[in-house]
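Morning. Coffee machine broken again, so started the prediction first thing and wrote up yesterday's gels while waiting. Chain of 215 residues, entered below exactly as on the submission form.
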Amino acid sequence: MKPPNSRFLGFAAMSVAACIASMPAKASLVADGVTYSLTETVLSSTTDQFTLDITGINGTSDTEKGRYGVQSFAFTQPAGFVSATPPGGFTASLGGLASGGCNTHGNFFCFTNNTTPPAPALPADSMLSYVFTVTLAAGGSFSGYVPDFKINWAGSFTNPAGGGYDHVSLPITPTAVPLPAAAWLLLSGLAGMGAMARGRVLRRRPDSTCCPATL
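Came back before lunch.
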């Protein structure tokens, strides 16, 4: 079997390392029995893509069932904020939100559903996913970004204390996605194979009688 080329192994190891370095950060919180997970992926030095996954909708743990869908949601702005591109079917605006939807108050960006979600309620344990991007000015940074998250729901729930759904307003702290152990093993294996391949090349280096050096 032909031994692996050391250059190839080095390139493969660097590719794995780059993949590890670019793994997205993820954050999640639970409110009223519904889980909100936020994943961040770097697109460029000034633009990141975010995916908001909402799970457990109208499920057993959901204390405010009867949800038709999301009416609006908002996040605080990171340092150097320039703009936010909304998910499909939503419109972006500046400011946070209140019980009536997006407004112009506060250091937030907000997305409003272009169509108020109608009845019937979503099936038990439904999941919704929204993808959007945020762009910063040169010199802006997502480092240490811990956004406050707000969301309004449309649905049939009536709060015994008055009103409808709770107005969720909570921080959502990004944390690094744990690296699978297999990735570290792969990286270590590639590094070891590269060292072995380099050793073979050194041992097989021809002498001057075979291949004279050129000046």
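Residues 52 and 130 are 5 Å apart (CA to CA). Going to sketch it on the whiteboard this afternoon.
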